[in-house]
Amino acid sequence: MADVIHEVTYYFNVSMDPAGKTPWTDKGNMFDGSIATFGYTASTGAQQSGLDNNCPGTDLGTITKVELRVYGYGDVDDRIDLTPHRGYSFGVPINLGDVHPTTPGTVAGWGIYVDITNDPNMPSPWTWPLVTALNAIIQFTKVGKGNTMHCAKVEIRVTYTAPWEPPVADIDVGGEPVDRDHYLTSGWTDIDKTNPANASGTLHSIKVRAYTNVTGLIVGTFYRTNGNILKCRDSALIGDVEAGAERTFTGFSIAVEAGDYMGSHHTFGTIRADDVDGDGEWSIEGEYIDPGDEATYQFQAGCVVSIYGYGDFTPVEETAYDTMVGLPTSWLWRKCDYDGAEKCPVGAEISWAWQAPTSGGGSKTPQGGPTSFSWGNE
Questions:
Q1: How far apart are CA 253 and CA 310, in angstroms?
Q2: DSSP 3-state assignment of 189?
Q3: Core-most of 85, 259, 293, 331, by most CB within 10 Å?
Q4: Exposed/middle/buried for residue 12 (C-beta within 10 Å: 0-12, 13-18, 19+)
Q5: How do 109-110 and 149-163 pair as beta strands?
Q6: Nearest one of 365, 361, 362, 341 to 353, comparing CA atoms
Q7: Separation CA 377–CA 360 (nearest Å)
């Protein structure tokens, strides 16, 4: 499976007073995980150090970036300087990274992320236990008027890659919703041959990865009627899809049959796709994605699209009566599944075939008991 870019955030939750430095007032508020309570100081050079954070150290994947940001407010000019470090010696932070100045606004809010990945004395490569062991100096630096600075939280954001994992579902169809090198343009109906539906039922959720912001996205299920002629079985409107990450949309009931393909049409923007690693793609200019739409498509080998649907099996109904189930020469007297693999006599008393019964149909089957039955239906 393809790797996917993920982000996860943590925060410093234990503080330490660096030796020889003025601490912040109400410093515990800076490490309680809340952005509603603040530590504060008016003393330039005042420091707190993040001694511990809430990263459990679990290996989620390959780390590509580590960043810090602060939630606080000041007087426009004054700064909170963030300096990552690794460890202490007699209460003094050691193995310092670069000093990263941040300038909180006058209204409480998050500042910009500062990238510490390749700072001096930072690990290379980063591992998850090393994120857990990360420390940071949080220092107030007066600039201009030098009023009181407030800080509520210091956050750690870790960017990492890991293989994409499909959701747990009975049915899935379409390509993995991951980053790809190319994209689908708007105004076409595109059908992905990759990963046809493994079973029949309904799709309740769709995952999409857009390259640029998309509007007017419709997704649907399609099946081949002859060669490159495909017909839409069912479809649903998603609408807008924001670019930049996998987006999940739920609450649908899109009919799908085993062997169906995932298709789409959108009016603006681009969707992640590729011309390698897939089973190919059918495309036609225009919108042909209403249920029952049928058209002749052009086929391009190797393509795959980052639109993925998943859902549930359609429960197989069972006859309320017992009948002959199995084969004409080898059968049992029991209930039979409608439209399933099991077969029984279906038709009329003097003209019948050994096949699966249809729920609500007009055909009849033997019902009753092996030695005493009638020819009827429900």
A1: 10
A2: strand
A3: 85
A4: buried
A5: unpaired
A6: 365
A7: 9
| Residue 179 per-residue DSSP state | -
H or E element at residue 318: none
Residue 221 backbone dihedrals phi, psi, to 5 degrees: -105, 140
**With contact defined as beta carbons under 8 Å apart, do 255 and 202 qualify?**
yes
Predicted TM-score of the model (pTM) = 0.61
- The residues near 103 (Cβ < 8 Å, ≥ 6 apart) are 74, 76, 77, 78, 79, 80, 111
What are phi and psi for residue 83, nearest 5 degrees?
Answer: -125, 110
Residues 313 and 203: their CA atoms lie apart, in Å, by: 9
Q: Which helix (H) or strand (E) holds 377?
A: none
| Phi/psi-derived region of residue 333, left when phi > 0, alpha when psi is between -120 and 50, beta in every other case | beta
Cβ-contact 367, 378 below 8 angstroms: no
pLDDT per residue as tens digits for the range 177-229: 998 999 999 999 999 999 999 999 999 999 999 999 999 999 999 999 999 99
Tokens 């393509």, located at residue: 303
Structure tokens at 166: 């499909």
Look at strands 47-53 and 3-16 and give their pairing.
antiparallel
Q: Which helix or strand (DSSP H or E) is residue 59 part of?
A: none
Q: What is the DSSP string of 28-54?
A: GGGSSS-SSS-EEE-STT-EEEEEEES
Residue 24, SS3 per DSSP = coil
CATH architecture of 3-162: Sandwich (2.60)
- Cβ distance 173 to 260 under 8 Å? yes
- Give the pLDDT score at 316: 65
